[in-house]
Design brief:
two-stranded antiparallel ribbon
């Protein structure tokens, strides 16, 4: 008798299998028609053989042998074919997830974890007092920050084509096979697939910073302009209905940010003009949307003065609308909205230097001084509609516009500035020397540096005059900060809300940044008897494990400097600290880095409590587990008690941005999960350790030390490791992928320390080792347990009770499930030194097996993804597409390194990298 559970699962996944089969057939037809039957037949044979490998009917060498001598002219369409197979499978999986969610809702099942509906249930059950909630949510903020870190390998054209096919596939499922509409849609899908096949997958030129700015802003037009304000309104209404009489969330909780155009750490392409461009382009998106909405509102709010009565405020606005008194004389709302659009047109023209579409040319009106003034006029229209019983009209487009203006202002998003502390030191030394303050600032000990900088922050005297002669570096840095001050003067303080100091290790690092902000016009030292004020938060970024350990002491010492504490006080006693996930992982390995971050948060929370400040943490997470990736909701709940406290910021990078924010449904789910996690972590006890907290922390101290030692033995202490890494992965080729404007290394060296985290992680991912996401963890766990069943039981108990430990092991399982050491062994064969190859790959293989054993022993799961069946299914489905791409990449790397440096071979390698990044769905 068949198992009904299996049949039910098969029924649930049948639409996915049908979609993949249909899309694969369309792609196959396209390839056969345009590349010829010989190429198509080879692709089919390789695909079938890869399926046989997955079913273990043949050995892993089967596909490699088929591809070993393939001509490069045939290899290129083969690589493109499997890349597009994966891309189409990805969109089929996205559609399937939406089907399952819809089925879940239709069945009346309880709301899913990470949804706001589930969070509200938990809050209702907790019976919290309104005053407590109001205190904990004071100045609440959830801010996803889009960065230009280059891990999105898809071109925009390819992305747009994929989006169109997705929409056509969604519409196709509404019709039966026999309905003519379905045939029309399938023809449209064939056209889009053909267009993709004729489109180059990789760029010929590296992205410019201006391109990255445009790419980041496209997500606002796609989804964020609609989704973010709607969520803000929903959350505010839901919380206020639960605690009436308490004015919760006086500002929108969800406010986005960006690094693109402001992050100049290691990116010489960010200049003063780029800062101005980034801010103006963002503001242009906001103004354009508001003007567009006002045009639509003028069309729809056509009420006649003969039928409705308006408030005096709207009557005054109507009197200012249209130069011709006879124009819409009987339609006060149209006239009022025209007056608002005229003022906004003047505002936009003054700020942007040009009139946006839907603006009124040569409008005779005064500009809005602030977004609040615009909102006041919109609120007046809202109040008038409600007073005449037309609230239903007010709740539509007008409400959406009001929520958008409240959320985005005139700036759209906060543009963070970032620079490395070493650069600050060089620039400040030059400024002090030029001004005659001190000829050799770098020679000063820390205490004297702090004393000198604190004194300079008190004086209103600038260090530079109009004719100062500076190095290109110093002149560029000062110009950038001055450009940021111009942006603040035009769009308001929220346009440049934060200044981040990379590799911050000391109080002087923080004060040097403050002095540069003063010289650029963002920090005002105040009147002789008044406190200083800085429009931007000064944010130290602690990145290495040592810096994370010392971070709390650095912050405590900074708060003891009177002038710095006054700056924090002027910000409402709010201090933001950024934590770096990427460099700490590259420095000490997965487990050590994760625990260093947790420990740093515990220490920072303690310092904040003792100093009487409100701490906000900014998490510099990447897309992969090796760079802090994983489910954001779980990551938030895994924070220590007090670390969230109503607010957090986190980076969103590369391919993760598209996965989360390119489609409205996905954007809504991901953003609400951030808020759900923030509310739960702030208002509920989610750590779950109770009196066992300190012993658990001590246990993790021990595990982290063991894991770091195991990681160091491989990465930092094994002679020849860097050479092995460079020969056994495509790291040298990552820099040629043209996926971002930043160089692959901070400095032109062969050191792992100087290599950026993205190429480090991406290279291990391509080679299917995934080393940054697990290495060292197995050794630590095995050494600590040492065969003791009681110790193993302790770890199993922590896995069940402690969100942090559970998330660490869950993320580890996700990344290890994408590893494949049989494939990795093929990459290892690229290493010339046989002894080195066998030594290092042997260490990797042994640690991999050790980690698998310990994961199974602690969790009780025989399979890595037993608790995540949807991901397990996804990896299983895409295996036949990964196999040929990996095998082809190894083959082409071998040819390149044997001397065949033809452009076609290089292009083939880059195509395989693109395909593997698409297949793995998070590359860096």
């Amino acid at each position: 008798m068949s198992d009904p559970r299996i049949e039910t699962e098969q029924d649930a996944t049948r639409p996915l299998r049908d979609d993949i089969r249909f899309l694969g057939g369309v792609l196959g037809d396209t390839i056969r028609d345009h590349e010829g039957p010989e190429v198509f037949d080879l692709i089919e044979r390789v695909r079938i053989e890869a399926f046989r490998v997955r079913r273990e009917e043949v050995g892993r060498s089967a596909v490699a042998e088929m591809l070993g001598g393939v001509d490069i002219a045939v290899a290129l369409p083969l690589i493109r074919a499997f890349t597009y197979f994966v891309l189409l499978a990805n969109l089929a999986e996205d559609i399937q997830r939406d089907r399952r969610r819809a089925a879940h809702t239709t069945a009346g099942e309880p709301p899913q974890e990470s949804s706001l509906a589930a969070t509200y249930r938990k809050l209702d059950a907790a019976a919290l007092a309104g005053a407590e909630v109001a205190d904990l949510l004071t100045d609440a903020l959830v801010s996803p920050v889009i960065t230009a870190h280059p891990t999105e390998t898809r071109r925009r054209t390819v992305f747009d084509g994929q989006t169109k096919i997705t929409e056509l596939m969604r519409r196709r499922q509404r019709y039966a096979d026999t309905e003519p509409e379905r045939a029309d849609l399938e023809l449209g899908i064939r056209r889009q697939v053909l267009s993709l096949w004729r489109t180059a997958l990789i760029r010929l030129a590296r992205l410019r910073i201006q391109d990255e700015i445009a790419v980041g802003l496209r997500y606002y037009e796609l989804t964020l302009l609609d989704v973010i304000p709607a969520i803000n309104a929903e959350v505010r209404a839901a919380l206020r209905s639960r605690w009436p009489g308490v004015e919760l969330l006086d500002r929108p909780i969800l406010r986005p940010g960006s690094w693109i155009g402001g992050d100049r750490d290691g990116n010489p392409n960010v200049t003063a003009d780029v800062v101005r461009h980034a801010a103006a382009q963002a503001a242009g998106v906001a103004f354009g949307r508001y003007l567009r909405d006002l045009v639509e509102l003028e069309k729809t709010l056509s009420q006649s003065a003969r039928l409705v009565q308006v408030t005096p405020e709207v009557a005054a606005l109507a009197a200012a609308g249209y130069a011709d008194p006879a124009a819409h004389a009987d339609e006060p709302y149209r006239r009022a909205l025209h007056a608002i659009r005229a003022r906004l047109s003047v505002t936009a023209t003054a700020a942007l230097g040009a009139l946006p579409a839907d603006g009124i040319p040569d409008a005779d009106a005064s500009p809005y001084p602030t977004p609040r003034a615009l909102l006041d006029d919109l609120d007046a229209v809202d109040a008038s509609l409600r007073a005449s019983g037309d609230g239903l009209l007010a709740d539509d487009r007008l409400a959406a516009l009001r929520h958008a203006v409240e959320t985005f202002g005139f700036h759209l998003q906060g543009l963070d500035m970032r620079q490395n502390s070493e650069v600050h030191e060089q620039v400040v030394a030059e400024l002090l020397a030029w001004a005659g303050v001190h000829a050799d600032y770098p020679s000063l000990p820390e205490s004297e540096r702090v004393e000198l900088l604190a004194a300079e922050l008190r004086t209103r005297r600038p260090l530079l005059g109009p004719h100062a002669r500076l190095s290109d570096l110093a002149a560029g840095e000062v110009a950038i900060v001055r450009a940021a001050a111009e942006v603040v003067g035009t769009f308001g303080a929220e346009a440049v809300p934060n200044y981040i100091i990379s590799m911050c290790t000391s109080v002087s690092d923080m004060l040097e940044a403050a002095l540069l902000l003063k010289e650029g016009g963002l920090l005002d030292p105040g009147e002789p008897d008044g406190p200083p004020h800085c429009s931007a938060n000064i944010v130290p970024l602690f990145e290495t494990i040592e810096d994370l350990r010392a971070g709390a002491d650095t912050l405590a010492a900074a708060l003891e400097v009177p002038v710095y504490r006054e700056l924090v006080s002027a910000k409402g006693m709010r201090q933001e600290v950024m934590l770096g996930y990427s460099d700490s992982n590259k420095d000490g390995g997965y487990l050590a880095a994760n625990w260093a971050l947790y420990r740093a948060e515990l220490d920072l929370v303690d310092v904040a409590r003792k100093a009487g400040i409100r701490l906000r943490l900014f998490h510099g997470r990447g897309g992969t587990v090796g760079r802090g990736g994983g489910r954001s909701y779980d990551a938030i709940l895994a924070q220590p008690a007090g670390a969230v406290h109503g607010s957090l910021r986190l980076t969103e990078q590369g391919e993760v941005i598209a996965a989360k924010y390119a489609e409205s449904g996905a954007a809504h789910r991901n953003l609400e999960s951030l808020i759900a996690g923030t509310l739960e972590s702030t208002l509920l006890d989610v750590e779950g350790l109770g009196a066992d907290a300190e012993p658990s922390y001590e246990l993790m101290d021990d595990l982290a030390a063991r894991a770091r030692a195991a990681y160091a033995r491989l990465v930092h202490e094994t002679p020849g490791f860097v050479e092995y890494f460079r020969q056994s992965t495509p790291v040298a080729e990552v820099g040629d992928l043209n996926i971002g404007s930043r160089p692959a290394s901070r400095k032109p060296t062969n050191s792992v320390a100087d290599l950026r985290a993205i190429p480090w992680v991406m290279s291990w991912s391509q080679a299917r080792v995934m080393l940054p996401g697990w290495y060292g963890t197995g050794s630590a766990l095995e050494e600590w347990v040492a065969g003791d069943p009681d110790r193993l039981a302790t770890l199993s108990d922590l896995y069940r009770r402690w969100p942090f430990f559970r998330t660490v092991l869950s993320n580890l399982a996700q990344v290890m499930a994408k590893s494949d050491l049989d494939i990795a062994a093929r990459y290892a064969e690229l290493v010339d030194d046989v002894a080195l190859r066998e030594q290092i790959f042997g260490m990797i293989r042994d640690e991999h097996a050790r980690t698998l054993r310990m994961h199974a022993a602690i969790t009780g799961y025989d399979e890595l993804l037993a608790d995540n069946p949807s991901l397990a299914e996804s990896i299983h489905n895409r295996f036949p597409y990964l196999e040929p791409l990996n095998q082809m990449q190894v083959e082409l790397l071998r040819r390149l390194r044997a001397g065949d440096d033809s452009e076609l071979v290089k292009r083939g390698i880059l195509l395989t990298m693109n395909g593997l990044a698409t297949a793995l769905r998070n590359s860096g």
